[in-house]
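Hi R.,

Here's the chain you asked about this morning:
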Amino acid sequence: MEKNILEVKNISLSYQKDPIVKELDVSFMKGKISVIIGPNGCGKSTLLKGISRLLKKETGSIILNDTNMDELSNKEIAKQLAFLPQSATAPEDVTVRDVVELGRYPYRKVLQKVSQEEKIIVDEVLQQTGLFHLRDENINNLSGGQKQRVWIAMALAQKTEIILLDEPTTYLDLGHQIEVLNLLKELNETTGQTIIMVLHDLNLASRFSDYMIGMKDGRVVYEGVPTEMMTPTILKDLFGIEAYIGEDPVDKKPICLRFD
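And the predicted structure, written out as tokens:
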């Protein structure tokens, strides 16, 4: 039986008193890649912000590894869960290594310097993400795909069981999108980390997910494996499109051939 590592129960979230997520229930399986899909404004990003406590919930509870997150400090949560927002930015004049080292903040006291042990962890993550040769480069000199690898490396440096990513392929060309998603898939397979992300591209969502979650109007209305989710009926309800579904010739996952 699959174990749920994260459970969201009856959660409601608002922006400036405008309700976005409404009494939502959803669970995420340990060691799997779960992808959240849905139309713009349905609450996908808001849900991730609520889970990571960047946005205060109004109702409900979030259970992380069988513990209510209300009972955990921010640092305790940061040792179990990393969140990569949609548009991460770095200050001027910082190197790739500087940014990745920020991922170690939950393990350090205020003003404590990076230990030798932490430097080893950072080096390992830089190697793992193919960034070691760029470690002393100013992050603002990197390409979009390289920058996204740096942010992922920073999240990996936290050494968490769960990584949340809000549209990690935004603003990237197709080649860099595949590069980033292949990296996340490889990390999931080699480390067993649970990955939860929001994606807009339905075919990429199907290709790289173990489980898909469909949101609409602030609620989860569909969930299942890609073959259950990528159907004309569900896609019409979620996005208002007439979808024609085929099969990927390589991994046999469902793909949207065209939509009207």
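The CA atoms of residues 46 and 68 lie 19 Å apart.

Let me know if you need anything else.
M.
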